[in-house]
Design goal:
Blueprint lengths: L1 H21 L29 H5 L14 H20 L5 H21 L4 H22 L2 H24 L6 H17 L1 H24 L12 H26 L1
Length: 255
């Protein structure tokens, strides 16, 4: 199952490259077909195999020789690895396809936020709908209604905190972050309140560490804008995997 999930991830990663390029530019995700941005020649099917085609073509367009960014195979590999890890963690469950959507959308949101400093509504809101749908079906089949109620409440609590920050500090927090907080808050709270607290705090901790490191290395100044979405996603995924254990450890150690 993990191997098949990884292969599926490679294919989804290839599509995510299209999403990351076209969605911020308002272009259709289906038309025209994939093509070289330099010469415009459509990419042949045998040149569109994830990772392998880039390696065989040595990172160049077959028709004009233009350089193809290594980001394309890296995104495909990252998505394949993420899908494999997700399958291993979630297991054969009704939640698995919804988890795949969450992971794929998270990768796309990270890349778009890093490059364009924005989180498209089409990604954040659709992912929230998918996450809630998956949790609803799971709650119905496995009678997990307490966890479902906690997830919905946790998502709104985290979103309200981000909304307050966006209102008070509009230059440092965007409303795309608020919508993303609704998504990751719902997912983390499904795991537990401890995961929500650890993930919510962890995003600001990661952002602070990255900001200080960027200033120290001269890559950013005190007034430089940093995309916050990547920190939210990374902290959320980490919290869903280990947040409850970290919260328990912290409580036992200090409380």
């Amino acid at each position: 199952m993990v191997l098949l999930a990884g292969l599926l991830g490679l294919l989804i990663g290839s599509f995510l490259n299209v999403v990351v390029w076209r969605l911020p530019r308002g272009e259709s995700l289906s038309h025209p077909a994939s093509h070289c941005p330099v010469c415009g020649h459509p990419i042949r099917a045998y040149d569109n195999i994830p990772v392998f085609s880039w390696v065989l073509l040595r990172g160049r367009c077959r028709d004009c020789g233009a350089r193809i960014s290594p980001r394309y195979p890296l995104v495909e590999l990252a998505t394949g690895a993420a899908f494999g890890a997700t399958a291993a963690w979630v297991g054969w469950s009704i939640l698995l396809p919804f988890a795949f959507w969450f992971v794929a959308a998270s990768i796309a949101m990270i890349l778009i936020d890093v490059e364009h400093h924005r989180l498209p509504n089409s990604l954040t809101l659709s992912t929230y709908v998918v996450v809630v749908a998956g949790l609803t079906i799971t709650a119905m089949l496995e009678q997990e209604w307490p966890a479902f109620g906690r997830a919905i409440a946790g998502g709104f609590v985290l979103a309200l905190i981000y909304a307050a920050l966006a209102t008070a500090f509009p230059r440092g927090m965007g409303w795309g972050d608020v919508k993303l907080a609704l998504v990751v808050g719902t997912a983390m709270a499904w795991v537990g309140w401890g995961a929500l607290v650890v993930g919510g705090f962890g995003a600001f901790l990661l952002g602070a560490v990255w900001g200080v490191a960027s200033i120290a290395t001269g890559r950013a100044g005190r007034k430089s804008a940093l995309p916050f979405g990547p920190f939210m996603v990374v902290a959320a995924i980490g919290a869903m995997a280990w947040g409850s254990a970290v919260a328990t450890w912290y409580s036992n150690l200090f409380l």
